[in-house]
Amino acid sequence: MKMGWRILPLALGGLAVILAGCGKSESGPATLFQWQDYTAPAFYAEYEKSYGEKPGTTIFADEDEAFSKMRAGFKPDVMGPCLYSLPRWKDAGLLAPIDTAKLKNWNKLPPALRDLPGISAGPGKVWFVPHYWGNTSLTIRTDLAPEYAKSQSWDILFDPKYKGRVSVLDGADDVVPFVAHMIGIDAYKMSEADWVKVQAKLRELVPQLRFVSADNSALAQGLASGEIVAAMSWRTTFASLNREKKPVAYLNPPGGIFTYVCGLVMHKDPSNEEKALALIDAGIADAAAVYMITTIGDEPANIEAMKTVPDSVFETLGVPRDLETFLKSGIFQQPLPNKDKIVSAWTEIKSGVQ
Fold this sequence. Notes:
16 strands, globular, alpha/beta, D-Maltodextrin-Binding Protein, domain 2, disordered N terminus, two-stranded antiparallel ribbon, 12-stranded mixed sheet
């Protein structure tokens, strides 16, 4: 008998009927509000198996867009922000605590992710379930800028020799901490005097740039063609080029590179809490984790599932098999203080890119 079906005796002349349970409820499918890559069927396969239905999916381009849409009344059940957006979403009253005891895959996440600062919602509960992580650094063409492949330095962004042939990401959460780090400032603890110095460095950067983009395809195409020789990018950009055997390197300078963590959160008023939790759990399942690292190129929060992944996948990404140790070596991206002011300033500064 299919698991989840139940035979219930009814007092109707000794008859019995078979009722299909399968975990279904009278509510409709759970809804997922997520980055495009993370709405793939692999991330809700276990949910679909349990409930016999696909979740509804809606895509956002960035967390600011998602935040505005929810503030305007959109109510998905599960959302996929990155950690630096968590305080803003939580403080706006958009989230409900998640009971980790109801997630069978929770303990497959390493302590470094289960204990991230700011995610606890009390004993046994969290506001944010880590889903995946990755890095922000520079992808460079080793044949076109060999000296930087050797030095592992981010200074190529400011090198007059490569003016007009470098690019950076467009989000303030990526660019501001990156450039601040280059001049010895911690963007997450900077004073007003520090912020003045960072703005000056950003203004120095803009004339160097060919373009500003968070589009992985545009960055990869620019590097592949030689239009740009270095691009601030996520590791996924490097991985796609490395997979195609392009002459690229992902820089890892002294002092470490930035690590972002994105996760799954539950709306304060889910249409069905059981389904919402099942959808979150499906996102961190073993098969979802394997799909993530082999197809997208981000590193899964569920590192236990990586035991089945071949060495060639890690070699393509340029990361060691010991993901937990590697994870600890990075600089975790955090919420920027006075973010609205920083975003406004960076928007004005980057408008100078032609």
